[in-house]
Amino acid sequence: MRFFRFLLVTFAALNLLLMPAAAQAARQFVDAAGRTVEIPDRIERVLAAGPPASVLLYVLAPEKMVGWVRSPSAAEKEFLAEPFRDLPETGRLTGRGNTANIEMVLSMKPDIIIDVGSIDPTYASLADRVQEQTGIPYVLIDGAFPRTPETLREVADVLGVKARGEELASYAGRTMEWQKETVADIAGDERPRVYYGRGPDGLETGSAGSINMEVLDVVGAANVAALAGSGGLSNVSIEQVLGWNPDVILTLSPDFQKSVMSDPTWANLKAVKEGRVYRAPTLPFGWFDSPPGVNRLIAVTWLTAILYPEKAEFDLRERTREFYRLFYQVELTDGQLDRLLADSAVR
Known about the structure:
Elements: H1 2-18, E1 26-30, E2 36-40, E3 46-48, H2 51-60, H3 74-77, H4 102-108, E4 112-117, H5 121-134, E5 138-142, H6 148-159, H7 162-182, E6 193-197, E7 204-206, H8 214-218, E8 222-223, E9 233-235, H9 238-244, E10 248-251, H10 254-260, H11 270-273, E11 277-279, H12 297-307, H13 316-328, H14 334-341
Signal peptide: 1-25
InterPro entries: ABC_Transporter_SBP (IPR050902), ABC_transptr_periplasmic_BD (IPR002491)
Organism: Aquamicrobium ahrensii
């Protein structure tokens, strides 16, 4: 296996050496980790290192994707455009449960590898290692949610699709500014206090600073789990949640949404008493997170509707249609909208 890997890497290096000068034309790009990477002037094949990058590539330039990090399910494919929804699975290079390897990367023959999300030294080290082993440029993009417009423009420029990037970035900027102005007159102590429960029992959540909770900050709501400290995702106890007594509970899990409203353990929470337990839609990608990518932009509109109902003077269905048409390149039917919003508790 080591010898086979050596041959693959050697073959890739020889290809680069033998390539015509025009095909090797490159420019320097300084990525979010401060790494200077030589990237091709013309990029036609792109490999996503993880799920957020996969979503970003799909919304910007699906024709350049070599595949999905994870093959979409049948339910997800319904909300993705043909023929891109049927691209092959590549596996992931980053994060928990990484499944890709150097042989896969070389076999896909990408012009560039893109990772979007955290930019800590662990990810920079991985990028350096994969780039050294394959000879393929690997860039890191800061995927922090508040800078979504900048992320869209930056990657669109790398891929040579500036017009598309500007269209999506302008929409993202307008959406964030609209939301900020809409709730500007609501005092800080009147903003909703939110608990986000992951998993079937709802006892995994995001602490202060978690990338999974960034949307709450953008819409001006408070993450009650921030009281537990900072970090990423972590498990908490029911006693902690009872002590925080959130105004609103959010989840992605239909099982947890159903159980929390009937389980006497949760009955005394303000959110449960007032029926403010909402499940974020998840097709084709999670609205709140899962993955924590540009797919979260629709949550800015959705959360405004459920967290600030007195300010929800807009048609959520039409806003959802617009987002799916622009970002996912699909035209939603009334039936699809019904299913997307069925368990979101928005009417």
